[in-house]
Amino acid sequence: MIVFVRLTAQNSTINSCLILERNIVQLVKTKVLLGFLSLLLLVLAPVQAEPVEFTAIDLNGQEWRLSDHQGKWVLVNVWATWCMPCLKELPELEAFYNKHKDKDAVVLGISMESIELAELRRFVKDKSVTYPIVNMKFMSETPFGSVFGMPTSFLVDPKGEVVARETGVVTAKMIEDFMEEIMNE
User: Fold this and answer.
1) Domains in the chain, ordered, with CATH?
2) Which of 29, 121, 142, 164 is least surrounded by Cβ atoms within 10 Å, i.e. has the fewest?
3) Which residue has the higher pLDDT, 44 or 177?
């Protein structure tokens, strides 16, 4: 099973992907083909080929900079409190974060929704999430790449380059397996 797809398409455009998605969705109603469509969009959509810079203020009022984590893998997870698949994924991301935070990888959660910070803080506390969370209004284009749905995870390598994107739920094992695959190339 393919979990993350390495993103290498440099010349395709988001518009052609969205047109393709609209045409296929009108014809297709099954999960299998929609899963294939998601995979196709991952392969065709452009990705950052150079180191990404991203800075934001987390829920604790601390500045979070991607560049502060050079030399480590960074999993950037775009999610929302109303997204059921996102909520299913939170414990997996927390487990991954706790296992790797002092070694080779960190997690950054980007809550993309209009929500009061106090409400988001309560939600994160109730769900026992300890990795950094920032809140942003929804945007389909992020510094890490396109967001076609939630949850969307971007994997940034130790050089600061986005090497993969996955729309849908990921597990700690899936992330670790993909990191190992890239390191063994």
Assistant:
1) 48-183 (3.40.30.10)
2) 29
3) 177
